[in-house]
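Hi everyone,

Forwarding the result from last night's run.
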Amino acid sequence: MRVIRGTEKAGGRVVALGTFDGVHLGHQALLKTAKTYARAHGIPLRVYTFDRHPLEVIAPEYAPKILTTLPEKMSKMCRLGVDEVQLVTFDRNMADMEPEGFLSRLRELMDVRAVVAGWNYTFGRKAGGDAEMLCRDGKEHGYDVLIEEPVTREDGTAISSTLVREELQAGNMDEADSLMRGPYTISGTVVEGKHEGHLLGYPTANVAYPVRKALPAYGVYTCLIDTAERLYTGVMNIGVQPTLPSGKVTVEAHALEGKPELYGKKVRLTVIERLRGEIKFNSVEELREQIKKDKERAIQLFAL
C-alpha cells in the first residue's frame, strides 16, 4: 500500500472518504464496498483522509483522543486491501475551504470514477457538504457515489468512533475489541520511571504512549508485551497511581515471565482484560499484596 503526502495527481480511482479513526466495523464495511467496486472495475482504491482529526485545528478543546495513530491506521487499511492512502494535511486553509472547493480539489487530484462515503460524512467549511451534495456532484461530473449506511449493534445503535471510545472509557475491552474487530493496542518506547515497581518487587516497563492516544479506563489489565525480540504475557496498570502518585497518567506493564530488560525499546501492548479499577491503598504493603494478587490472577487467566 502506498501512502501519498502532497498533491500527487493520479488517473482513475475509486475514492473512500472519511476520518477512519479506529477503522472500526463501520469503516470496514465502507472499505469493503469501495474495494468491491474497485476490483469489479479494475481501478485502484484510494483512501482520501486527513493527517489529524479536524477538531484538533477547528476546536482543539473539543478534539477527541484518537483510537489509532497514523501507523496503526495505515496498517489496518493495508490489511483491508486499500491500494493507496492520500494523507492530506488538515490546517486552517483546509478548515476554511468551502465544500465546493473540497470536491473541486478532489477531482483535480485524480480522475474520480466513484466516491464511497458514510451516511453521516461531512466536508468543507463548517461541515457544509454532505452525502446529498456528493450525489449531486457525482451526477454533474460523471462519477458514481456510493453512500454506506450505518453498521449497527443489535439494539440499533450506530457503530462509531465515539461509541468505541465510550466502551474504552468504561473498561469494556471485549466490547471495544468487538467494535474494532481486533484487540486494542498501545505502542511506545519504554522510558525511565520512578522505579517503584522494582522497590515493590514487581518491575514495570513505563511506556511513553502517544499523547493523543485514547486510553482505557484507569485500572489493571492483562496484556501482551510485544518487542522486536519476543512476545511476553503481562499485567499492566493505567492511571495516576493514587497510592504513590506521580502527578501524571502512566502506562506500566509487568512481564509475567522472566525479567526482560526493556528500557529504551519500542513495545506494543495489547490490552486484553480488565482485572480491576484503580484503587488508593492505605499503605505500600497493601499495594504490594494487591499487586501480588493481580499477578496471580493474570497468570491463571493466561493458563486457561
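The first strand starts at residue 2 and ends at 5.

Cheers,
N.
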